[in-house]
């Protein structure tokens, strides 16, 4: 009698467990620790030449584990490898002009298809024109995640010039820097306005120390 009673209790206990686990169709439900609206983190860093986009993108990448996509870097690699695209854009870059929107949009669309971008990305130096900003929208729609954080690093022309002359990259000659700054005011400021009107833009003082700039960006991303 004692054995039958203990068997009945065991069976009852097993039935209870099955019911609690959703009829035995797998593991108990996990508690979601990440708010779905925070995933993926899609960041645009915008600012003039030498504003600190690359420096800050590296820090965001380190903290949030999302890839840093610099259109300038991708284009410089093409030039260094001597590809037909590289040969096409070399002189444009040397003059500090902007590469055609269609070329840059195709590069970005391709890069965002890579699996490492599924959890988010940091775009550094793109978009630089309203056409690029508008072209990015269907690309993000296709990914199913249109949400963006756009961070503007505000730095004076004088400070940008000083930083770049001190750095000495191939396109950091005084004449080229002047052209890059002029392009920033002529084209990129319009893209900044575009994002501001959409309520997506955060302005950060880029003339603080590198650590303080990052602290401001980080606070903005955590919001
Ligand atoms: P790109 O490579 O994007 O150049 P850029 O916009 O001119 O920017 P930089 O890389 O020079 O500066 P940054 O803002 O990243 O600053 P960084 O962190 O390096 O583009 C190059 C070219 O490619 C363009 O001219 C164009 O031809 C073409 N191109 C690229 N994208 C394009 C697009 N979307 N459309 C069309 N054409 C495109 O910092 C600079 C220096 O300052 C460093 O030495 C750094 O250590 C220092 N620094 C950084 N932060 C601070 C700080 N807070 N205090 C003091 N120093 C600092």
Describe it for me?
There is one protein chain. The chain has 223 residues and is α/β, with parallel strands linked by helices. The chain folds into two domains: 41-67 and 116-221, Rossmann fold (3-Layer(aba) Sandwich); 73-113, no CATH class. Helices cover 57% and strands 11% of the residues. Strands 2-3-1-4-5 form a five-stranded parallel beta sheet, sandwiched between helices. Helix 2 (53-64) crosses helix 9 (210-222) and helix 5 runs parallel beside helix 6 (130-143). The chain starts with a helix and ends with a helix. Bound molecules: BIS(adenosine)-5'-pentaphosphate. BIS(adenosine)-5'-pentaphosphate is lined by residues 47, 49-55, 70-72, 75, 92-93, 96-99, 104, 125-126, 128, 132, 163-164, 167, 180, 209-210, 213.
Instruction: From the alpha carbons, calculate the radius of gyration and give it in angstroms.
Output: 25 Å
The rough form would be described as globular
CATH architecture of the largest domain: 3-Layer(aba) Sandwich
**How many β strands by DSSP?**
5
Number of domains: 2
Q: What hetero molecules are bound to the protein chains?
A: BIS(adenosine)-5'-pentaphosphate
Whole-Å distance between the termini? Answer: 64 Å
Percent of residues in β-strands:
5-15%
Helix content percent band: 55-70%
Gist?
The protein is an alpha/beta fold and 223 residues long. It has 9 helices and 5 strands. Helix 7 crosses helix 8.
